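Consider this one:
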Amino acid sequence: MKKLLLSVLMTAFCGLTFAANIAVGYCDGQIASSSNYSVVGKGKVSSAVHISPDVLARYVGNEIRGVNAGLVSVKYCDSIVVWVRETLDGEDLAHGMIKRGGAQKPQAGWNAVLFDNGVAIEEGKSYYLGYTYCQRYNDATVSVVGQPMSETTFIKRGPAAEWEDISSAGVGSIEALVGGDNMPQVDVALTDAIGMQTTPGVLSINTTIVNRGQVDLTDYDLTFSAEGYNYVYTASTLVAGGTTGVVTSVLYDVPDGVGFEKPLTVTITRVAGGEDETPDNNSVGVGVKVQRSVVVEEFTGTGCGWCPRGLVGMDLMHEQFGLNFVGIAIHQYNSSDPMYPSRYKNIGLNSAPSCLIDRSFECDPYYGTGNDDRHVLVDFEQEMNLGALVSVSVDAVWDNPDDPNGVKATIKVVPQTNINGAKLGIVLLADSLRGTSSAWKQSNYYTQYSSSQLGADLGQFGSGGANGTSTFFWDFNDVVINTYYEGGQYEMNLGNLSKGDAQTVEYELAFPTKATLRAALKLNCIAAAAFVIDSSGKILNAGKIYVTETNGIRDISKTADSNLREVARYTLDGRMVTTPQRGVNIVRLSDGSTIKVFVR
């Protein structure tokens, strides 16, 4: 059976409101961002999809009430006629039209156009759904998305042209709007399920539910099953009849391997209000990944006059994403910088400020890949939301608790897939570095602008701003002060990793010997981080932790100073929270130190 997407639209035509209509097609509700089907000059262009009898079988006795046409561009589009036919060049069984000067105008995106009279869906019959648009100049409008599906998608480039089968490129963004008196009362489909392992034993799963029936979903069970595991989650998230919803389920105490080497399935097993009339699509596999921490390596330096914006961008990520942000500020722009590292791998950054995100793409540490303020936060979150197929956890203690001269780091790597040629990077980082000599001052070229010209974040560096001088003192965060280095290599060779085969590595990182830098270190602001790299050089995942006396799990009430108070709390995946969360929490205390606490 061909892949089927069903979504729902509340539609109106000529003042008459119809019941919810279900959109039936192959495109998963997607529209392409660009089109490869440009047509030169003025004229008419048509596109169509073929909807087979097996796709429409459950809707026999109802009707096609309209067509949903997904368009990439309507810049030079004057009108669109949507239609239903039995053959590509046959007569219209029904059609509808929208035009530039009408109440409903063509638009880039979805265009839901209803017919005056619907087309009855007959058993065993297939239909061609399509649209014809009239352009007055060169345009690229036809949307094709997804995977190829034979004999489904067609285009006709002009009234005299022949129809072309373009199914090898994907499927057309065209859907039938189906409705009627015989639509199923209870008809639920699970179309997607994405899981994230936020901490060991905890899975957060988003399940996409399409409610194609007339009964609202308000009380229903989702059953999660794997080898040796079965859990029933009773949901109350509303998914109204004729709509699509995403239900988030958090599963605790999940056995090792579930969702990874033990495939996990979710099934809707109970719906209050009746039995599902078409239970063949009530289950879907859950794709599980582990929480991703993202490495941002920044090329910067005190001698770089444009680097103040990098300081802001890195601090924004530091504050917003917590331990999911593994910032590595590499102060190699000028050798006079007191934070200049004696060694760090050459990762190809030459201009400052600039950064690599997971060694996958280069961008500005403030503007990101866009030109708008703070866009780096968008880039970071998109990378973080990809998840990962390898977990990286870091623990770290002082080499000498009484008189620390460095850190002993223990890194655990658990691959959820086979990884060939893996390497491990290990770094020691410092926050709140501030010196007193002029060498610690940050250069600033933003003084050539007024504070009001630069906006909220960068205004402080403009003339009249709080740091609106040619140089200024700053509290530098995420500064790399040491890195793994053995035998001329900056990364430890882990070799080929097998799925589920955990690797544990211990490594000691000493404090820098440079007196000016060492004097600026604050013991409660030192972090150890590690990241796994694949054979292509991309970072797959990372872990980070701030160093405490022992980094053991303990109770705040057992701290030596009774005046200490909690100032911030994070989950193990780095999310800042306002209330204790079940499991291990990272707590930052009022003296700047960090401890782990266990919440039952």
The helical segments are 53-56, 308-321, 375-384, 455-458, 515-520. Residues 1-19, 550-562 have pLDDT under 50 and may be disordered.
